Amino acid sequence: MRPTYMKPIGVGIVGCGGIVLQNHVPGLALCPAARLTALCDADAAVLARAAQHTGVAATFSDYHALLAHPGVDAVIIATPNFVHAPIAQAAIAAGKHVLCEKPIAMNHAEAKGMAEAAERAGVRHMTAFTYRFVPAMRYMAHLVRAGAIGQPYHFRSCRLQDWGTRAVGWRQVAKLAGSGELGDMLSHRIDYAHLLVGPIRRLVADDRRFHDVRDGQVSDLEDWVAILAEFENHRASGVLESTKVATGRGEGARSQDYCEINGTEGSLVFQLERPLELQVTKKGESVLRTVPLPEEFLKWPGSPRDPRVGDPAFTFRYDQDFEFIQAIVEQRPCVPSFVDGARAQAVMDAAGVSIREKRWVEVPA
Q: How far, in Å, CA of 339 to CA of 329, rounded?
């Protein structure tokens, strides 16, 4: 019997670093059906800071204890990647709904296992592909589905940031993260590709590590990665690139996050720096026109967020948590789900094989 929520949905967070305080806490605050009830982090200082920031009294250093808390109905996992799968599987076994940061696992087998376990348990499951919630990306996907560009020819996306030699914590450690720029930033662009064009059929990839040391700490993961892809859908082509060493490009929402799709009838261009507008052109035209988004695309359907309040380059992130909670309330699948996370992981695994073996690789279905 699926539960009917007459009381607020209690949410526990495992991993209380910056992304939780910046994205998830304000996102949950917008959800009238949710209440943040418990926090967990292995780092006592991080946990104490999050408790002070949120006012949550129930704090734990062991996620098993958080999962046993009677006030926890759903869990947000924002830990280093290597513990995503075990925490998610434990939460699913305890009957908790799960929102997990990307990449949701260290490999496709783990990710697929998470999706299958969640489906068997009848719990809601969501992958934190945050940029799906950018208003301009949502409108771009709508126009593609509506046939505005006809049959897709080309997809291209690049994420250019300048982190220089600054340390990125556990994200520069292979045993904790699994991959560097591939999982950290290119995974989002792989999801763009799936959203706009469909499954990737095969690919060839390459990567580089330019800095073996960041702020005095060893780094054994890539700073740059690129994929050349062929899609199942009409054999469209794709070029995906992401880097942390694009000198002078800055970082975060103000750096380059570009996505373009070309088709038989037109082209569309998205840039994160301008989240409330899209560039478009049609067959027979020779220039891109900037168009504002229709009102209904300024926020996620049903979200109580006022799209005119706050910085639109950041506030769209709050809609992700609204979607997670609303899917629980409505007892329907989350968008995007663990299935989407597993599909992206399959591409990442294939990219890893291609990089190691220097060849084209088929992506498993």
A: 20
Would you call the peptide bond into 333 cis, given omega within 30 degrees of 0 as the criterion?
A: no
Exposure string for 178-200, b = 16+ CB within 10 A, e = fewer:
bbbbbbbbbbbbbbbbbbbbeeb
The pTM score is: 0.96
Q: What is the pLDDT of residues 34-89, one digit of tens each?
A: 999 999 999 999 999 999 999 999 999 999 999 999 999 999 999 999 999 999 99
Q: Which residue has the tokens 């920031």?
A: 53
Determine the pLDDT at residue 96: 98
Domain boundaries, the chain: 9-131+331-336, 135-293+344-362
* Number of CB atoms found within 10 A of residue 54's CB: 18
Question: Which residue in 199, 197, 201, 200 sits closest to 141, CA to CA?
Answer: 197
CATH number of 135-293+344-362: 3.30.360.10
Task: State the CATH architecture for 9-131+331-336.
Answer: 3-Layer(aba) Sandwich (3.40)
Amino acid of residue 25: V
**Cβ pair 111, 104 in contact under 8 A:** yes
Instruction: Decide: 208 and 215 in contact? Cβ < 8 Å.
Output: no
Quote the percentage of the chain above a pLDDT of 90.
Answer: 96
**From CA 12, how far away is CA 98, in angstroms rounded?**
10
- Condensed to tens digits (0 to 9), the pLDDT of residues 80-117 reads 999 999 999 999 999 999 999 999 999 999 999 999 99
Does 9-131+331-336 match 135-293+344-362 in CATH topology? Answer: no
Contact 136, 275 (CB under 8 A): yes
Please list the residues that pair with 239 across neighbouring strands.
156, 228
| Distance in angstroms (rounded) separating the CA atoms of residues 37 and 60 | 11
